[in-house]
Amino acid sequence: MSKPVVLVIDDSDIARHAVCTMLRRADYVVRDLPSAIGSTREILRHQVSAVVVDLDMPGLRGDKLATLLRTNPRLSEVVLILISGQSQDELAALREDRAINAVIAKSDLELKLVATLGRLLSSGRSDPKPSS
C-alpha cells in the first residue's frame, strides 16, 4: 500500500519546513508550496490525499482555498486541515466551516497534527472530534 501524499501550503518558509519535517517523520510523502497558486495542479498531479494549509496567506487565504477545492468534484474528497497562529477564540468560527475537516492552532501542531491527519485519512474525511 502506498503512503498518503500530503500537500503543505504556507507562505512562511520556517513554518512550512517545520510542518513538512513533522509529517515526513510520521512517514507521509510530503509536497509543499509557498502559496495556493498551483495547488489544484499539484493535488491532481501527485494524487494528494490531504492538504495542510495556513489560514493567513497573501493572495488566497486558506479558508477560501478550501471552499474552492470543495467546488471541484475531482478534489472534493481531499482532507483539508487549516492551521493558524490565531487565538482559539478566533479559530472557533472556522471549525464550523464544512469545507474544512479540522482546524489546528500552530501552537498545537506538534501535539495534534499527525494524530488528526491519521484519524481523518483512516475515517474518510469526517472528523467527529474537531481539533482545538
Please tell me about this protein's structure.
By secondary structure, this protein is an alpha/beta fold. It has one domain (5-123): Rossmann fold, CATH 3.40.50.2300. The protein contains five helices and five strands; from the N terminus they run E-H-E-H-E-H-E-H-E-H. Strands 2-1-3-4-5 form a five-stranded parallel sheet, with helices on both faces. Helix 1 (13-25) links the parallel strand 1 (5-9) and strand 2.
Strands of the widest sheet, in order across it, are 2-1-3-4-5
Mean pLDDT: 87
Order of helices and strands: EHEHEHEHEH
CATH architecture verdict: 3-Layer(aba) Sandwich
Tell me the distance between the termini.
31 Å
Q: Treating each run of at least 4 consecutive H or I residues as one helix, how many helices?
A: 5
Oligomer: single chain
| Whole-number total of structural domains | 1
Strand content: 15-25%
User: In the CATH scheme, what's the topology name?
Assistant: Rossmann fold
Provide the gyration radius in Å: 13 Å
Instruction: Using the alpha-carbon principal axes, give the shape.
Output: globular
Using the coordinates above, name the CATH class. Answer: Alpha Beta
Q: How many β-strands, per DSSP?
A: 5
| Uncertain segments | 126-132
**CATH homologous superfamily name?**
Response regulator
